[in-house]
Design brief:
Elements lengths: L1 H14 L18 E4 L9 E4 L9 E7 L6 H9 L2 H4 L2 E4 L16 H16 L2 E11 L1 H12 L6 E5 L14 E7 L11 H10 L4 E6 L7 H12 L1
Parallel strand pairs: 3-4, 3-5, 5-6, 6-7, 7-8
Antiparallel strand pairs: 1-2, 2-4
Length: 234
Amino acid sequence: MLKNKQQEQNRQAVAFGKLLARPMQPQQKSAQVGLQSLSLDGNRDALLYVPKSYQADKPAPLVLMLHGAGGDAPGGLAPFLQQADDAGLILLAPASRLKTWDMLYGEYDADIAFINQALILTFSHYAVDPAQIAVEGFSDGASYALSVGITNGDLFSHIIAFSPGFMRPQKQQGKPQIFISHGKWDNVLPINRCSRKIVPQLQHANYDVVYQEFDGFHTVPTGIANSALEWFGS
């Protein structure tokens, strides 16, 4: 009976885009650092990067990193991977179940369940600072990051959206801080119908938004990535 009730709660959470995973006391004091696979899926797995400086008695900031359409877990890690050691960041990059994230097909589904599973596994092995958890994404991943981040503002302290197309949160939960960037010459997700509409909507909803436009196309310039990391760590 209890198992069926838990399954129903999990099903409802997935349908509403809710993540139930939360930081906890890690189960072991010594843990692997560097890049590793979580071995949750044979074809489209999640990757975890743990900085060399990680210590179990010093909870680290974590960034959930979401790739763009047609991407994968290695692509999801790309914006922050080179800076992770210096910044002391744990990076978690799941791969979407299909070519892009479930909500972009119409509703929250298997991707929320997979992300929740990856977070539970990460939290059970590594000490994570609950006040420093960000969700980041590029392109479709940025749209998903905004949507999931606002819906789960009781988990995420920060949202980083590089060139988002839109947002569709299920509800407003908490008040995560938000960083958005967009290229002025973006020909994939044009800035005028995307970020220049999204940012005022967020500000009107009383979110603290840092917005940076840059001279460029549909990309994440190194300077923009560094700016977002500096903002996250401040």
